[in-house]
Amino acid sequence: MKPNSILFGMSFAVAANLAVAAEPAPVIEVSAGSASKAGTSSLSEQLISLERKLDARNRAQVNVQRQLDELQNEVNELRGITELHTYQLSQVLDRQRELYQELDRRVSEALKPANQVPAGIVAPSGNAGQVNYSDNLTENEAYDRAVNMVLKDKLYDEAIPEFEAFNEKYPNSSYAANAHYWLGQLLFNKSELTKARQEFEKVVSGYPDSSKRSDAMLKLAMVEQKENNPAKAISIYNKLIAEYPNSSAAKLAQPRLQSLKP
Prior knowledge:
The chain is mostly helical. The chain has two domains: 45-109; 142-262, Serine Threonine Protein Phosphatase 5, Tetratricopeptide repeat (Alpha Horseshoe). It has nine helices and no strands. It has helices spanning 2-22, 26-110, 139-151, 156-169, 176-189, 193-206, 213-226, 230-243, 248-260. Helix 4 packs antiparallel against helix 5 and helix 6 (193-206) packs antiparallel against helix 7. It is rod-shaped, with a radius of gyration of 50 Å. The N and C termini lie far apart (180 Å).
């Protein structure tokens, strides 16, 4: 019986060892735990990356909004500057219209039948030093200064070099035609007819769209009439009436033309 007992014991031991060997190895459980930890770590990294991207996007939106605000402020400033310049331009145009009206009135006075220079156009003496002007002048200020010396200060002789300096310094000015006409008018009043003719001819030939061209043609014809050139005067009067039939200059030219006809 002992051999059988020994054999049975050995069989039981082998079976037990086989049963133990058949059980799952603990290493499998360890591997599964590592994989779970790895998945959790990857998810955390993804969340952190997403948070960083959202944060970057928010900062970019803030920067864009700030730039838009700055652009809006610049647009508002430019709009304000444009409105200011528009207002200033309207003021300049209004002032020029007033000056032109005053000039036309004075020209009409100068062209009275007696052919005498009115007292208001004769340059007074002894008051040249009563008006002081700045030497730093812009184009508009330089033109206004010269005009005001005629209309406000009555400094007719002093205004001549002012208009000459203006025409030399600003030959392409929008006021050039008017400045030449003013200068011609002042020289005409002083009976410096040769120089006056040159200024009126500049307006007639160089500024076809100027509002003073018809007036310059009238004065040019008057210069020829004063210098005993009736044929030239008649030609210019006829041209004036043909080109500007409804102008005040044409109306003033009509009786002068009639007086020259035989």
